[in-house]
Specification:
By secondary structure, this protein is α+β, with helices and mostly antiparallel strands. The protein contains 20 helices and 38 strands. The strands form 10 sheets. Strands 1, 2, 3, 4, 10 and 11 form a 6-stranded mixed sheet that branches. Strands 21, 23, 24, 26, 27 and 29 form a 6-stranded mixed sheet that branches. A 5-stranded mixed sheet has the order 19-12-13-14-30, sandwiched between helices. β37 and β38 form a beta hairpin. It starts with 7 loop residues before the first strand and ends with a helix.
C-alpha cells in the first residue's frame, strides 16, 4: 500500500532486533523466518561466501568461534555480532570466507535488510530506527548510513527509552508522575527519567553507558567462571600468556556464557556440560577440552553484581541530580533481555523500587517505534503520490490526551487525475461504533470533529464518495490517532560545546554552547559570542588557520578538560575563507544549529570584518582505533596525577584511594581483552570519567591559594578605597565583600578568579580617579622593569608601547593621554587578554566621580 505516515518501526539491537507496524490501530510484530518476534543481530558467511543473517547466522557463529580454536594462532572470523558497539568508528571486520572487510554499518545494513524482508506485501522506504539515548553523534550518523545502505530513503531516529515509554504509556492507566526507564540491552545501558502530566510525557533527563550490556555480562562469566575452571582442570598457560590465543578462547567460550546467563534467568542452578570433542583443540599436555560446571545463583551474583551495580548507580545519580528520591517514582520500566535476571530484579527492588514487568522487555522498543512512526509524516522523495486516487490533505495531531479532536480536510484536486469537483468524506472508526457521516469537502477545506476511544490507538478509515454515492479510492485512506499519551519534543542527551582556552588555568576546557545544553528540546539553536582568536589570518593564506573543536559532554562537563569529552568535529577556517586581514585577538561569534535528526550546521562570524562563514558538519566522521600502548600510558598518567595530588596534601585520601581502586579495576578489564577493539573503547570511556574526577580534585586543591589571593586583593581594595573612594565605591566594596563571603562558602574556583579580576579592575579605577596620571606612569615603569618576566602575547608590540608611554610620560601628560597605551599593554598580558581595564560592571558606578 502507499503510505502517508512512516508506520514501520525497527529496534536495531546489539544482540537482537525486531520490526513492527502500526496497522488499523494495532501494533503488529513481524515474525522472523524462524517464527520468532526477535532476530539475532548476527551475520555469518560460510565457506562458499554465502551470507546468512539472524538465527542461521547465530548457529553458524557458535561453530565458527569453536572451530577457531583448532588453529589458535589465527584470528580468522566469519561470524559477527555486537557490531553495534563499534558504530561510528573505523573498526573493520574481516571475513576470510568473503575475502572482504565490513564496517559496523555494513553489517548493520544486512540486519536491516533481513528485517525488511519479513514484510512481504510491500517495499518499505520509510522507517523509524531506535538508538540508545547515550549514542554519540558519530554513532547516530553511522546508524543513518546503515539504513541508507539497506535501501531506506526516509529515516528518522528515536531514542530507545522514549520508544519504550510510548508503548507503556498506551497500555497503562498511570497518566501522571515520574517514570524511570531502565534499558539494559545487549550492548548498552540507558536510563531515562520522564515526567508525565495528564498523559503528556516529557523526558527531563537521561544518562547511561554505551559500554555496559549483555556483552559485558557474558565476558564476565567467561573471565571469572569458565576460564578459571579450564585453568584449574587443564594446562592452558601458553594460551593465557598469548593475547591472540587468549582472545580466541574468550570468543569461543562466550556462547557457553550466554547459555549460562539465559538459563540462570529462570533457574536456581545450571549445569554446563560439553561433550568430549565439542570444543576443538587441545591443552598444553595434549588433552581435549571439556566443561562440566554447576553454577548457582550465588556464583553468578558474585560475577554479575558489579556490572548491574554500575547501571543502578547511574539511575541513583540521575534521580539525585533531579532532586528526586525513590519514593517519588511511580514506575520503573524494564527494557532488554538481561532484565529477566533475578539478580538484577532483586538489586533494583532493594535499591530503587520494584520494577514494572508488565511489558515484554524484548519487543517494547519496536512497538514504541511503530507507535511513533504512525504519527510521523513521510517527507521528500519517500512520499509517493498516486494521481489516480483522490488526493487529500489532512491536518491533525497524531497523539492527544483529549477525547474529542478536530481534523481539517482539503481536496487537492490539482494533484488528482479525473477527480470530481465535489466529493464527500466520511471518517469511520475501526471499531465501527462511530462515524462522522458524509461531509462535503472542497479545495478550501472542511473541519470534522471526531471521537476517540480512551487509552488506545484509534484507527479511522477515510471513505470518499462522489455526488452519486460511488466510492472513490483516496490517498491517504486511513489515519491513526493515539489517545491518552503524548510525547514532548526530543531532547539533547549531551551538552554541545567547544574547546576554549581558560584565561586563568591556561587549560583547554569544554564550554557549552548557550541553547545547546543537555536536555534542551530539539531542534535547537546555540550561540557563543565574544570569543577571541589566538592568532591572525591573512587573506588567501591556507596555512593560516583557526580551529574550533566541537565536543559533546555529559552532565557537569562544563569547565572540564576538553579532551575528556567526546570529540565530534573540528571547524577549521583558513585565510582562504576570509576577504581581508583578521588580526590576533579579534572577536569571534559562533552559531550552531541542530535539527530534529541532530544534524549540525555552523556559522562563524567575524564582526570586525562584517563576514560570516557557514559550514555543514559532515555526517561521515568516524573515531579511530585506540592504540594499546597509548591507553597503557593513560593508566600511568592517571596514577601519577593521583600521587601528585596526595603529595601536595590538599585532597581527601579516601577520595583518591577510591579513584585508585577504580583505575585498578579498569586495568583488570583492559588486561582481559587488550586486543579487543570494543574493550579498548569501553576502557577509554571509563578512563575519561576518572580523569574528570581527578581534574575536579585538582581544581579544588587550588582553592587554598585562590582563597588567600582573594583575601589579599580584597584587603588592598579596601585600603585604596579608604584613601581615594566615594559613596558609590563604598557601596561597590560592600557588595564585593558579600560576594567574597558567598564564594568562600561555596569554594568555586572559577567564580573566585572572576571576582579577583573584578576586584583588581575596581581597585585600578579607584586609584585612577584619585591619582591622575601618576597611576599610569607607575604602571608603565613597572612594565618596563619587569618586561622580560612577563609572557607577552606580542613582545615587539609591548616593547613599542612601553617606549612610547615613557616618552609621553616625560612631557607632563594627562591620564587620558596614557590610558589607551596602558589598556593595550594589559591586553597583551596573559591574564588580561580579551578584557581591558575599565570594562564591566564597575564602569557605571564610577563614572560620576566624587
Amino acid at each position: 500500500m502507499s503510505r502517508m505516515k512512516i508506520d514501520f518501526g525497527i529496534d536495531l539491537g546489539t544482540t537482537n532486533s525486531s520490526i513492527a507496524l502500526m496497522e488499523k490501530g494495532n501494533i503488529k510484530i513481524f515474525k522472523t523466518d524462524t517464527l520468532k518476534d526477535t532476530m539475532p543481530s548476527c551475520v555469518y558467511i560460510n565457506k562458499k561466501g554465502t551470507m546468512y543473517v539472524g538465527d542461521k547466522a547465530y548457529n553458524g557463529m557458535k561453530s565458527d568461534k569453536l572451530n577457531s580454536m583448532k588453529e589458535q594462532n589465527k584470528m580468522e572470523q566469519n561470524s559477527f555480532i555486537e557490531f553495534k558497539r563499534t558504530m561510528g568508528t573505523d573498526k573493520k571486520y574481516y571475513s576470510s570466507n568473503a575475502n572482504k572487510e565490513f564496517s559496523s554499518e555494513d553489517l548493520s545494513s544486512e540486519v536491516l535488510k533481513m528485517l525488511k524482508s519479513f514484510v512481504t506485501n510491500e517495499n518499505i522506504e520509510a522507517v523509524i530506527i531506535t538508538v540508545p539515548a547515550k549514542f554519540t553523534m558519530n554513532q547516530k550518523d553511522a546508524t543513518m548510513r546503515a539504513a541508507k545502505l539497506a535501501g531506506f530513503s526516509h529515516i528518522e531516529l528515536l531514542q530507545e527509552p522514549v520508544a519504550a515509554s510510548m508503548a507503556y504509556g498506551l497500555s497503562t492507566d498511570q497518566k501522571n508522575g515520574f517514570w524511570l526507564v531502565f534499558d539494559f540491552g545487549g550492548g548498552t545501558f540507558d536510563a531515562a527519567l520522564l515526567k508525565v502530566e495528564d498523559g503528556i510525557m516529557k523526558v527531563i533527563d537521561t544518562d547511561g553507558d554505551n559500554y555496559i550490556g549483555g556483552k559485558n555480562l557474558d565476558y564476565a562469566i567467561v573471565d571469572e567462571i569458565i576460564i578459571p575452571d579450564l585453568d584449574k582442570n587443564f594446562s592452558i598457560k601458553s594460551i593465557l600468556s598469548d593475547n591472540n590465543k587468549k582472545e580466541i578462547l574468550r570468543n569461543a567460550m562466550k556462547c557457553f556464557a550466554e547459555d549460562i546467563k539465559i538459563q540462570m534467568s529462570f533457574n536456581e542452578k545450571y549445569n554446563l556440560l560439553t561433550d568430549l570433542g565439542e570444543i576443538p583443540g587441545k591443552d598444553d599436555n595434549g588433552n581435549e577440552f571439556e566443561i562440566d560446571i554447576t553454577i548457582t545463583q550465588k556464583d553468578l551474583e558474585h560475577v554479575l553484581k558489579p556490572i548491574f551495580q554500575k547501571a543502578i548507580d547511574i539511575c541513583k545519580e540521575l534521580l539525585k541530580r533531579n532532586n528526586l528520591s525513590n519514593s517519588d517514582l511511580n514506575t520503573m520500566l524494564f527494557v532488554g533481555g538481561p532484565t529477566y535476571s533475578p539478580i538484577l530484579r532483586k538489586m533494583t527492588e532493594e535499591q530503587i523500587i520494584k520494577p514494572n514487568t508488565t511489558i515484554d522487555p524484548m519487543t517494547v522498543v519496536a512497538k514504541g517505534a511503530a507507535l511513533h512512526a504512525s504519527t510521523i509524516d513521510i517527507k521528500g522523495t519517500a512520499k509517493k503520490t498516486d494521481k489516480s486516487k483522490v488526493q487529500l490533505e489532512l491536518g491533525y495531531d497524531s497523539t492527544t490526551v483529549e477525547e474529542e479532536v478536530f481534523i481539517t480536510i482539503k481536496h487537492l484536486k490539482d494533484k488528482s487525475e479525473n477527480s470530481p469537483d465535489q466529493i464527500f468524506v466520511e471518517l469511520i472508526r475501526n471499531d465501527k461504533a462511530w462515524s462522522s457521516g458524509r461531509k462535503s469537502v472542497d479545495q478550501t477545506g472542511e473541519i470534522i470533529e471526531i471521537r476517540l476511544n480512551k487509552g488506545i490507538a484509534n484507527s479511522f478509515e477515510i471513505a470518499v464518495f462522489d455526488e452519486k454515492g460511488t466510492r472513490l479510492e483516496s490517498q491517504p485512506n486511513e489515519i491513526t490517532i493515539i489517545q491518552g499519551t503524548k510525547v514532548g519534543s526530543a531532547t539533547l542527551p549531551y551538552h554541545i560545546g567547544i574547546e576554549v582556552l581558560d584565561k586563568y588555568s591556561k587549560e583547554l576546557i569544554f564550554s557549552s554552547v548557550k541553547g545547546l545544553e543537555k536536555n534542551n528540546s530539539i531542534p535547537a539553536k546555540g550561540v557563543l559570542t565574544g570569543l577571541r582568536t589566538l592568532n591572525s589570518l591573512r587573506p588567501g593564506m591556507k596555512q593560516d588557520t583557526i580551529r574550533i573543536p566541537i565536543y559533546q559532554g555529559e552532565y557537569a562537563a562544563e569547565g572540564t578538560r576538553a579532551i575528556d569529552n567526546e570529540h565530534i568535529y573540528d571547524v577549521i577556517i583558513t585565510g582562504a575563507d576570509i576577504n581581508s586581514f583578521l588580526p590576533e585577538n579579534s572577536e569571534v561569534n559562533f552559531y550552531l544549529d541542530i535539527d530534529q535528526s541532530e544534524t549540525m550546521s555552523v556559522i562563524v562570524e567575524f564582526p570586525s570584518l562584517n563576514f560570516k562563514h557557514q559550514i555543514s558538519v559532515p555526517s561521515d566522521t568516524k573515531s579511530k582505533e585506540i592504540e594499546t600502548s597509548w591507553l597503557e600510558s593513560q593508566f600511568i598518567k592517571a596514577k601519577q596525577s593521583l600521587q601528585m595530588l596526595e603529595s601536595e596534601g590538599y585532597c581527601d585520601r579516601n577520595e583518591t584511594n577510591a579513584i585508585l581502586d577504580e583505575i585498578k579495576e579498569l586495568e583488570v578489564r583492559f588486561n582481559q581483552g587488550k586486543n579487543d577493539y570494543d574493550r579498548k573503547k569501553d576502557v577509554l570511556d571509563s578512563l575519561k570519567r576518572v580523569f574528570k574526577k581527578i581534574f575536579k580534585i585538582q581544581e579544588l586543591s587550588k582553592w587554598p591559594k585562590t582563597e588567600q589571593e582573594l583575601k589579599d586583593v580584597l584587603k588592598h581594595l579596601k585600603e585604596v578605597n579608604d584613601q581615594y573612594g566615594n559613596d558609590k565605591t563604598n557601596d561597590a566594596v560592600r557588595q564585593i565583600e558579600e560576594g567574597v563571603e558567598n564564594i568562600t562558602k561555596n569554594r568555586n574556583i572559577k567564580i573566585a578568579r572572576e571576582m579577583i579580576e573584578n576586584i583588581r579592575n575596581l581597585d585600578f579605577m579607584i586609584m585612577d580617579q584619585g591619582m591622575g596620571a601618576n597611576l599610569e606612569i607607575g604602571l608603565l615603569l613597572n612594565c618596563n622593569e619587569n618586561y622580560n618576566m612577563i609572557d607577552w602575547s606580542n613582545r615587539n608590540r609591548a616593547r613599542s608601547l612601553i617606549d612610547e608611554g615613557i616618552r609621553i610620560a616625560n612631557t607632563n601628560p594627562t591620564k587620558e593621554q596614557l590610558r589607551p597605551i596602558v589598556m593595550e599593554l594589559f591586553k597583551l598580558m596573559p591574564a588580561g587578554r580579551g578584557s581591558g581595564f575599565g570594562d564591566g560592571v564597575w564602569e557605571g558606578i564610577l563614572s560620576g566621580g566624587k
